[in-house]
Design brief:
By secondary structure, this protein is an alpha/beta fold. It has 13 helices and 13 strands. Helix 10 crosses helix 12.
């Protein structure tokens, strides 16, 4: 049986954010494929989740927890608290060396020597340094790094809008770390292309997110519920602020009580105290099933940030009409104008939402298109087919 050692600092089993949902889905796929899973969980003192919370179907795995990554996380947290509000970049950001933990590196080396894994999978680039302790004896394990994003590009995007990034990393630094791995996992095709430019001759795999398709009835009568699900990151906070300032008041003026807005997730912490119209602020919700069941239209007005937007994947997999932006559509470009709508100005957003709110038949058609798109793009074969080949055809 092929054994895989996963090194992660993400408590993916909580599944309460998009990145955790994706890692959990990938982990479930590998487990179902017959791999023997082993985990090295890197935990900072303030991390949520612990290995003792792992669901029962992971309990047979070898699980070790080690404290690490404290310096980088603490420095970023201090910067968020102490940074100049007019210029957040006045407080220096952590760099990659701030995340290096000798104790984590040693723990990884011990685990490799004791467990002799066939494959090592690292989530994400801040833990790439563990390969310093990869045993030199033969055979060496196949090494993969799950990137989730082109981190140097993401860093530049944050800086361009005046936001601090969790790490200040250049393209050259990212290249040097990634080239140490046998395979680089990109979350979507555009990222894969960027990695191929960065690493000529490198082995790049596109590993997206598999999501089950859930059909919901299309509500034909008002009130029509708009839904935004997001974490508290700066890209989501800015997206919500722009929507509440420039779009939502115009919808309230047009439709009054016939339209409602539901805001879900940690982004709720940035919702202003006074908002016009019928707005329900739900906060964090452990299970989003009812949220999507009661949503008529999903929105994601994100204006910066890379990677694949898991909230968009989930909206489409729940067969919901989706209104997003060109940034939100990255990795999903085949569905623009058919499975979902892209709007890059408040005026475009208002126009498309007015049409959707007013026309139940349009919502029904978009729901059907979203379902068709999701069935093609979010199946396990679409998400994990390249990885399956790289791992020698794990059984399913």
């Amino acid at each position: 049986m092929t054994s895989l050692l996963t090194v992660t600092d993400r408590p993916f089993w909580l599944r309460n954010r998009g990145d955790l949902q994706r890692i959990a889905a990938l982990t479930d796929y590998l487990l179902d494929g017959g791999l023997r899973l082993q985990f090295l969980f890197v935990r900072s003192p303030r991390s949520e989740g612990s290995a003792s919370d792992l669901p029962s179907h992971y309990r047979g795995a070898q699980i070790d927890t080690v404290i690490g990554g404290v310096k980088g996380r603490a420095r970023f947290a201090r910067g968020k608290r102490a940074g100049n509000k007019r210029d957040p970049l006045m407080m220096p950001e952590p760099n990659m060396t701030d995340f290096v933990s000798p104790s984590v590196r040693r723990a990884f080396g011990r685990r490799c020597r004791a467990l002799l894994p066939d494959v090592v999978l690292v989530h994400y680039i801040r833990l790439a340094y563990v390969l310093d302790e990869l045993p030199r004896s033969k055979p060496t394990p196949l090494t993969l790094i799950d990137t989730f994003d082109v981190m140097s590009s993401r860093c530049r995007q944050f800086h361009n809008v005046g936001e601090r990034h969790w790490v200040n990393i250049s393209e050259e630094e990212e290249r040097e770390l990634l080239r140490r791995f046998d395979y680089v996992l990109a979350i979507q095709k555009r990222d894969a292309e960027e990695f191929r430019d960065m690493l000529p001759g490198g082995r790049i795999l596109t590993v997206g997110h598999a999501c089950p398709i859930v059909r919901h009835p299309v509500r034909r009568s008002p009130p029509i519920v708009l839904t935004y699900v997001a974490t508290s990151g700066p890209a989501n906070r800015l997206a919500l602020a722009g929507f509440l300032s420039n779009v939502w008041p115009r919808l309230v003026d047009r439709f009054g009580p016939m339209v409602k807005l539901r805001i879900v997730g940690r982004v709720c912490r940035s919702v202003p105290a006074v908002i016009s119209g019928d707005v329900q602020v739900l906060g964090e919700v452990e299970d989003l099933t009812d949220v999507y069941a009661n949503a008529d239209i999903c929105i994601n007005p994100v204006v910066f940030g890379g990677g694949l937007k898991i909230k968009n994947v989930e909206a489409l997999a729940n067969c919901k009409p989706l209104v997003t932006t060109s940034v939100g559509a990255e990795g999903l470009e085949d569905g623009i104008g058919r499975a979902f709508l892209v709007c890059n100005t408040p005026e475009e957003t208002v126009q498309e939402l007015v049409a959707l709110i007013s026309d139940s038949e349009l919502r029904r058609r978009m729901s059907a298109e979203a379902r068709d798109f999701a069935e093609i793009h979010f199946s396990q074969e679409a998400a994990y087919g390249e990885l399956k080949l790289a791992l020698g055809g794990i059984s399913h």
